[in-house]
Amino acid sequence: MDHQPFEDWLLNAEALDSRQREALNAHLQGCRACSALSAVDHALQTARQVEPRHGFVNRFQHRLAGNKQGVRRRNALGFALLTLSVSGLLTAAALPLLRSVVQSPVDLAASWLSGLAGLWASIQALFHAGTVLVRVAPGFVPVYIWAILLFGLTGWSVAWVYSLMRYTRIVQGA
């Protein structure tokens, strides 16, 4: 059963014509959910509104300011605890390194240079493998795939430039 028009009629408080009113009353007699909704709506419409006690706004604003101050204190305390714990973890992690620097700075420098040399060799190997792949890959991939990739990249680039133009126009207020 479709409840939507009946719910709309109940909640919008529009004036209904006689045919709609009859259909609504017939539906309310057979539908428990809509009749409950109607009862709640009627109770809310007929409920007496109570004025707040004198000074309510001032008490509310005072309580809100106190809550904001408490949140600021908790945030500051949390930030301080986070800073202290991160500083402690970094210090604990750096202690072995600091000991090795104090005990043997030459060994530390040698290990760093060895690591840098290994990193440089890895970068060169990846670059060499990439150039080989770039030279060999076009022979394995059919031409129509390259065309699809090229058109897709072109479309993406045009959409990107268009969105940047729209964004700068929005930001500039034009």
Structural features, described:
- It is a single chain.
- With 174 residues, the chain is mostly helical.
- The chain has helices at residues 4-12, 18-30, 32-46, 56-103, 105-140, 143-172.
- Helix 1 runs parallel beside helix 3 and helix 4 crosses helix 5.
- The chain is flat and about 90 Å long.
Features:
single chain, 174 residues, 0% strand
Question: Which helices and strands, and how do they pair?
Answer:
Blueprint: H1 4-12, H2 18-30, H3 32-46, H4 56-103, H5 105-140, H6 143-172
Share of β-strand residues: under 5%
Give the helix tally. Answer: 6
Largest sheet: none
Shape: flat
Characterize this entry briefly.
This protein is mainly alpha-helical. Helix content is 87%, strand content 0%.
